[in-house]
């Protein structure tokens, strides 16, 4: 192995004592490939297994915690105990290849398509639709239903434990329900779940509290609990970088095993809310976290040199998303000193070799702009 890239394969110990065999994690990516009843398909398991032997940890695509939280066609479910055998199949497929299996748990809120959820009952923090065309006006959740969804995150965590997952990642990013409660665009409430910046943190913090309670009751200390967040929103009013820094400061004291920032490019700079716009979002986040909890960075990491540049920002852990679709052997090539052989553009003729399910492949190859670097 080239000594330049050795740090990528260094081991890392999470706050709960769990050891990761290297610094590379598979990022969560929607794959649209589950059965219509929410069970995992064999094609889906094979897709994950193909990418699980090199990385230290795999974070799955998001899974819905309640029926009205389903955000995508072909999304697998974790909203009932009947789903545990399906979840177990996925966890086993990942773990057999040597990676830790982490289930990403979520509720889509106002971003759920009406045709996917019971009675077309789209819900959110407030009755404010997402910006853009064809977004329904959601029903504002009463406090009682907010509490039910908090409990559902806990119950889904229990199912993940029973299915053999090594951890869960609470999905608080990308405009979904937890972010909707934090955002001043989607949260216009005046109860304990909204109003001030601090009150808009209440729902995600209550979800974390419930998930951690379930972990204490049903799992051992090695079970991993992470939280994913997006740093900013483009809408006005919306989440600004200073809002996120205040939230991340709070998140850093919640006893989580990692935070995971959702970015399209790890080099990106803040839009608004801070004075120095030439300082990267990652730099701001690492400064406020101040070593209290590991931060996973993601976004536009394709080559080995990209990864080294990302680690040099101070990030302890890196998540690769689309690059692991392009080249599932990314980690192995670095460990064998073959980093020059890493493929960074997707070959449309290699679906079978890459073990990508048909629904995901069709979206990759037929949606303009969805997957840069296709040839």
Report on the architecture of this protein.
The radius of gyration is 20 Å and the shape is globular. It is 32% helix and 13% strand. The strands form three sheets. The protein has an eight-stranded parallel β-barrel with strand order 3-4-5-8-9-10-11-12, surrounded by five helices. A two-stranded antiparallel ribbon has the order 1-2. Helix 1 runs parallel beside helix 2 (84-95), helix 3 runs parallel beside helix 6 and helix 7 (241-251) packs parallel to helix 8 (281-289). With 375 residues, the chain is α/β, with parallel strands linked by helices.
Keywords, separated by commas or semicolons:
13 helices, single chain, 8-stranded parallel β-barrel, alpha/beta, 13% strand
Distance between the termini: 29 Å
Strand order of the largest sheet: 3-4-5-8-9-10-11-12
What share of residues are in beta strands? 5-15%
Shape: globular
Report the order of strands and helices: EEEHEHEEEHEHHHEHEHEHEHHHH
Please summarize the sheet with the most strands.
8 strands, parallel, barrel
In which range does the helix fraction lie?
A: 25-40%
C-alpha-based Rg, rounded: 20 Å
